[in-house]
Write a structure and sequence with these properties.
Layout (H helix, E strand, L loop, with lengths): L8 E5 L6 E2 L15 E5 L1 H4 L4 H11 L15 H4 L18 E3 L1 H7 L3 E6 L9 H17 L7 E4 L3 H13 L3 E6 L5 H9 L3 E5 L3 H15 L2 E2 L6 H6 L1 H9 L7 E5 L4 H15 L8 E7 L4 H7 L26 H10 L3 E5 L1 H12 L7 H15 L8 E6 L7 H8 L21 H15 L1
Parallel strand pairs: 5-13, 6-7, 6-9, 7-8, 10-11, 10-13, 11-12
Antiparallel strand pairs: 1-2, 1-3, 4-5
Length: about 450
């Protein structure tokens, strides 16, 4: 096939003011109008290859051992970062996560065709790997070309820091992570520590960390790795392409996704739009974004017809990764939602915790952020917005194993504001046959 270097991509102002920058320039916002940037591809070049040919290439590369094309991200290199040298790519063969037919849970909800895309089945346990492989690879190439980048930094509520630390460790690049003290699970905190990151626990929330990391990066030549850096979006958009590919290039009716900083929402839309514009799919799905009630600026904006963002002070939520009151990618997300006839819902702490536990009882093991999406889905079904005959895909963003405290405290009834409708605790017994037998059949009688 054509060499990826025959294709081209660049940064362009999302607001279309005309500003354009090369991808190896250290820039995050438009220097003319202050808008976020996005990666724009040469569609004329990409369009010279037929949709059928692109499908064939993507299929042939899936799970290949040929570096780096076995990765779910780098198997689509021409659509992601075409000009990077393969030797500078930092990959854990991310992507290709399973699209789970949640038959039993779907039946409980009244859905005939319900699927869950388990993005948490990845190297560091979340979808953030998809974007970080692109960003860290780009940094490695810039360093190889002589740019002085002493470290790569991010603000995080857990998953971003884990992905950054792992990919930087693999590349031999120092990572720095800014975490809100006491607001990250132990399982998430240990990941950047283990991978050698410089971890700064700040006595603030995510928005406070984000404000400081931007200033530190801008004034000290550190490279910023948060989702306002649109290189991340290029990797994360491959979720859309994978979903379509796993359905033999048929697009679902709905995609449901939790929303915090909202970079993943814009990435989801970008992937579907790219496939449509290059002829691989013929329609777009509707998109539903779910936010925690405690951190719901997008939901508030949606209820007012997508008025301008009004930042809020996000309150404590079990869905800690989306406890964000001033989402950086708000503008991009709103544009996607308008183009995809999208809707926004919210979930209380009780709703998200019980939705997560209910899904677990049907065979999954969900993170609290997926619980937010599940609770939002249940509401949209009850409202008649999502119909029972429609094909629905829910994006599960992280592995439930990263949130053991959430799971344990739910079943022990220790979560504030949550009445655990699906609690399940071990039965403590003496090592006595009659006691064990009696307990088993008493429990079975109650369940069945």
């Amino acid at each position: 096939m054509d060499s990826p270097t025959e294709y081209n991509a660049w940064f362009e102002c999302f607001r279309r003011c005309g500003e354009r920058y090369p991808l190896d320039e250290i820039v995050y916002r438009c220097r003319r109008c202050g808008g976020l940037l996005e990666v724009v591809h040469d569609f004329e070049k990409l369009g010279n290859r037929s949709a059928a040919s692109w499908m064939k290439i993507f299929e042939e590369r899936s799970h290949s051992t040929e570096w780096p094309f076995g990765s779910g991200v780098w198997g689509k290199k021409e659509w992601v970062l075409p000009n990077i040298d393969n030797g500078n790519i930092v990959s854990m063969f991310e992507g290709h996560t399973n699209l789970f037919w949640a038959e039993r849970f779907g039946r409980e909800l009244g859905l005939e065709d319900f699927w869950v895309k388990h993005c948490g089945n990845s190297h560091t346990g979340s979808f953030k790997d998809l974007g970080m492989t692109v960003l860290v690879s780009a940094v490695k190439q810039m360093i190889a070309q002589g740019k002085k980048i002493p470290a790569v930094a991010c603000a995080s509520t857990g998953d971003t820091s884990a992905a950054l630390a792992a990919y930087c460790a693999s590349a031999g690049i120092q990572s720095i992570v800014f975490l809100p003290k006491g607001k990250v699970s132990n399982a998430q905190l240990v990941q950047p520590l283990a991978n050698g990151a410089l971890v700064l626990a700040l006595e603030t929330d995510f928005d406070g960390c984000m404000e400081i990391v931007q200033k530190v990066c801008t004034e000290n030549d550190l490279y910023l790795a948060n989702s306002m850096n649109s290189l991340r979006v290029e990797g994360q958009k491959t979720v859309s392409i994978e979903v379509a590919q796993q359905f033999d290039w048929v697009v679902p009716d709905w995609v449901v996704i939790p929303g915090g900083n909202l970079g993943n929402v814009s990435a989801l839309g970008k992937g579907f739009l790219m496939m449509r514009d290059l002829g691989l799919v013929s329609k777009l799905p509707r998109i539903a974004v779910a936010q925690a009630h405690a951190a719901n600026p997008l939901y508030r904006s949606f209820k007012k017809g997508f008025k301008d963002l009004e930042p809020i002070q996000a309150e404590k939520t079990l869905a800690s990764a989306i406890q964000i009151g001033n989402p950086v990618s708000f503008e991009k997300a709103v544009k996607v939602l308008k183009e995809f006839d999208g809707v926004v819902e919210e979930a209380t702490e009780d709703e998200l915790a019980n939705a997560s536990a209910r899904a677990d009882r049907a065979g999954m093991f969900t993170c609290p952020h997926t619980g937010v999406a599940l609770a939002g889905l249940i509401k949209l079904i009850d409202q008649g917005v999502i119909k029972n005959y429609q094909k629905v895909v829910l994006i599960s963003t992280a592995n439930g194993l990263k949130f053991p405290e959430f799971k344990i405290q739910y079943h022990e009834g220790q979560l504030d504001g949550v009445t655990p409708a699906h609690a399940n605790l071990p039965i403590v017994l003496p090592p006595d046959y009659d006691s064990v037998r009696r307990a088993i059949f008493e429990a079975l009688d109650k369940r069945f």
